[in-house]
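user:
I keep going back and forth on a fold encoding question. Separate attempts, laid side by side, tell us more than any discussion would. Would you put together a sequence-and-structure record for a protein of your own picking? Write it directly below this note and I will take it from there.

assistant:
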Amino acid sequence: MIYDKYAEAWDTQNIKMLASLCHPNFEMVMHSSGTIVQKADYIERLEPLIQKFKPENRRCLYENEDVLLMHFIMPFPNGTKDAVLYYIQKEDGLMRRIETGSTPIKINLSEVDQ
């Protein structure tokens, strides 16, 4: 499955491994702007980010041969955090389309009883 490989590639900052998980017709939909990014642009944008940003509490919510749902908290250099949800459509065992959304977090999750 893709989730473990994606997590490993991100954690080891292996951009080539991330690129290998993308279908040739890959696209990412950025709901905040409506932009659709193709594979080459996705990898180009991701390369500097993979070194700067470290997702927290990343987890696979669901994965089968068709889809992967992933959730994580993304801390930013200015001290803010967003809750991020990835919906990944898979094709031929690769990531074909990612749709993502994020919500700013206004509270410190470490202070919330779970």
